[in-house]
Design goal:
binds the ligand Cc1nc(C(=O)O)sc1CCOP(=O)(O)O, TIM Barrel, alpha/beta, binds magnesium ion, globular, binds the ligand Cc1ncc(COP(=O)(O)OP(=O)(O)O)c(N)n1, 214 residues, 8-stranded parallel beta barrel, 41% helix
Length: 214
């Protein structure tokens, strides 16, 4: 799938604990029907084969909504399943290596919480950057606080689109106005909500207003 920065507006990232017994497929479909524009399969508790099975079933759902499916951490799952891309952090495969093995048509995202790392990600062939933790988060134990001012500096330093991640919720999305982001990446405020579809709907409206104005 050809990458377009509008795909980033509401980037929903799965979480086994948030979803609980509601089911991965059901929860992702709820997020997409509420307006999530891109999905990241982030499941650190399963082996390669299980991750591939999860990716296979999510791909069918994402294709129904024309939304890309990105795999967290694992480029081999992208190759095996035909998922749309991979998201890699500083402790994962090098972005340049991922570009080499996945080719130019797959979507590659990189985490960067400094201007230097963001520029390096851009030079290494990343399509977008995830920067955080813009607010406090309980979802990722080793996330470090970034804040909106640092986020704004990163957005201004690179030519590729940036998504804000970490503690993003309906209450604080308006604080991201004028940061220059192209989207918000959200775990618990979507998949931890009682009603995933309506949570996504509300977040999408707020995100669109920050990104596109209005
Ligand atoms: C969109 C987006 N941004 C940042 C991250 C974090 O990636 P990473 O630093 O590799 O941490 P883990 O998610 O692997 O724990 C992300 N996943 N998505
Ligand atoms: C996956 C992830 N990466 C982060 C980073 O700072 O790079 S914060 C984070 C978790 C975001 O979850 P929630 O929306 O529930 O706060
Ligand atoms: Mg990672």
């Amino acid at each position: 799938m050809k990458f377009d920065k509008n795909m980033l507006a509401l980037y929903a990232i799965t979480d086994r604990k948030c979803i609980g017994d509601r089911g991965l497929e059901y929860s992702v479909e709820q997020a997409l029907s509420g307006g999530a524009t891109m999905i990241q399969l982030r499941d650190k508790e399963v082996d390669f084969d299980t991750l591939c099975k999860e990716a296979d079933s999510l791909l069918k759902i994402c294709q129904k909504y024309s939304a890309p499916l990105i795999i967290n951490d694992n480029a081999d799952v992208v190759i095996k399943t035909g998922a749309d891309g991979v998201h890699l952090g500083q402790n994962d495969m090098e972005l340049a290596k991922a570009r080499e093995i996945l080719g130019k048509d797959k979507i590659i995202g990189g985490s960067a919480r400094t201007i230097e790392l963001a520029k390096k990600a851009e030079q290494s062939g990343a399509d977008y950057i995830g920067s955080g933790a813009v607010f406090g988060t309980l979802t990722k134990a080793d996330a470090k606080y970034l804040g909106t001012e640092n986020l704004k500096k990163i957005c201004g330093a690179v030519g590729i689109p940036v998504v804000a991640i970490g503690g993003v919720s309906a209450d604080n999305i308006p604080q991201l106005e004028n940061c220059g982001i192209s989207g918000v990446a959200v775990v618990s405020a979507i998949f931890g909500a009682d009603n995933i579809c309506s949570a996504a709907q509300k977040l999408r409206k707020l995100a669109d207003s920050v990104i596109y104005g209005g």
